[in-house]
Amino acid sequence: MQSENRLFDDIVKMMNGAAGTLAGMGREAESSMREKMREFVGGADFVSRDEFEAVKAMAAAARDHNQALEARIAALEAAAKAKAGPKAAKPSPGAAN
Question: Could you tell me the residue ranges of all domains in the chain?
């Protein structure tokens, strides 16, 4: 036989309401924290992945171009030394010693 006790029913209803309220507060706190983190990250001047990859590709292209120019300069200097080699050994007539 089951007795009907309104006190227990009221306590159960109150506990269910409190559990629902706490769950809602938890969801609200999580949502608020996510929004604050988005604002923080958005205002911190971070770059997007696409921007990072574009600058990375530009830097790699500049590095390759720099290496090609260094090789070209070295070849030109070698050619200039080869041409000027015999002439460089002779002193110029107007040079003071």
Answer: 8-46, 47-87
In order of 20, 53, 56, the CA distances from 65 in angstroms are 64, 18, 14
Q: Which of 37-46, 51-60, 87-96 has maximum average pLDDT? A: 51-60
Token pair, residue 38, equals 């988005």
Q: Is the pTM of this model over 0.85?
A: no
Sign of CA dihedral 50, 55, 58, 59: negative
Tokens of 80: 């200039």
SS3 of the chain: the string is CCCCCHHHHHHHHHHHHHHHHHHHHHHHHHHHHHHHHHHHHHCCCCCCHHHHHHHHHHHHHHHHHHHHHHHHHHHHHHHHHHHHHHHHHCCCCCCCC
Can you tell me the distance from the alpha carbon of 85 to that of 77, in angstroms, rounded to the nearest whole number? 11
